[in-house]
Specification:
The protein is an all-alpha fold. It is about 80% helix and about 0% strand. The chain has a single domain (about 10-195, about 215-390), classed as MFS general substrate transporter like domains (Growth Hormone, Chain: A, Up-down Bundle). The protein has helices spanning about 5-10, 10-30, 35-40, 45-75, 80-90, 95-100, 100-130, 135-165, 170-175, 175-190, 210-215, 215-230, 235-245, 255-275, 280-300, 300-330, 335-365, 365-385. The chain is globular. It starts with a helix and ends in a 13-residue tail after the last helix.
Length: about 400
Amino acid sequence: MPPAARATSLPGGVIALGMVSLFMDISSEMIHGTLPVFLTTVLGASALSVGAIEGVAEATAAVCKVFAGAVSDWTRRRKPLVLLGYGLSMVTKPLFPLATGVGMVLGARFVDRIGKGVRDAPRDALVADLTPPDARGAAYGLRQSLDTVGAILGPALAIWLMTITHDDLRFVYTVAVLPAVVAVAIVVVAVREPDGTGTASTRVPLHRADVARLPRRYWLVVAFGAILTLARFSEAFLLLRANELGLASAWVPGVLIVMNVAYAASAYPLGRLSDHVRPRVLAWGVGCLVAADVVLAATHTVAWVLVGAAAWGLHLGATQGLLTAVVADAAPADLRGTAFGVFHLVAGVALLAASLLAGWLWHAVGPPMAFATSAVFCMVALAGMWGRPTANLPTREKD
């Protein structure tokens, strides 16, 4: 299939899932784009508390992903879990404007991330089920781009609402419920299982024999993703860095806008490019994260924080869809949900460790050390990538 034809030939289900991601991210980023400031200025939390909340939330999602992915393989059905996951995230949104303490925010984030954990692995497996192997980089890149457009619109809407309501964060969080409802409606109406999904397996999920069938190349991708995730702690610390250097609370979500513009603009074209030259795209993406860390560690101005945020976004555009496509290619078709679940579980544990480490370094030593440590992990990831034949990591195989 010629590359120019791929954008128009992607299945409608992939585009629908992208639109679901767009609306849910509008809702989520309206909240998450200001949540660190809400925690530290309204509820009096510390940077270490922010790191703990973000790390626990993402680790919770990761644990759920491995079970949800395995169940989707077992039942041969992806959509019910996708709908359940997005539905859980939708019902947690009203809890944020009602929060009166850190514990309630942690509880809301905990349940919200359970929803994310339930939906992500089945959704990623469903994209692979719907898409031809030679277009998966483009498919995952398109979904990531639409997801990230939502991550741009969400903070932009939050800034506008905070401006006209004089920084009324609780009102912003109330409005954030509406796009979450739209996202769930799209899942119900427009997302379909592919034909020929088959009957449920008689073997229980997460059987040892199934895990043993995952090839060595898959486990190399898991190891690489874990090391890279240790370098990529929560984006909440980008927001704290900007606020610390003097950016007004109402404009803090602008950091996410800059990051996500770079992410959205790069994810689809780099996803298509990765269908041909995956090792170079992956290495370039890790290099962008190193550049972001250097800028964010050394800067004393908000302008350079925005430059670092843009480089962070380019890193995400180059790596996130690509790694997802590689997992889809490396795993057997009947174990894709399990493969995505295990991959996300390992990444989630790494993200918990990274966020806790970044929060501790931020509190004990200072922000520059947190970003410098991220750069070190990036270099370890690059060394591991090039220390083995590149064909073992980011190549594409036919089903």
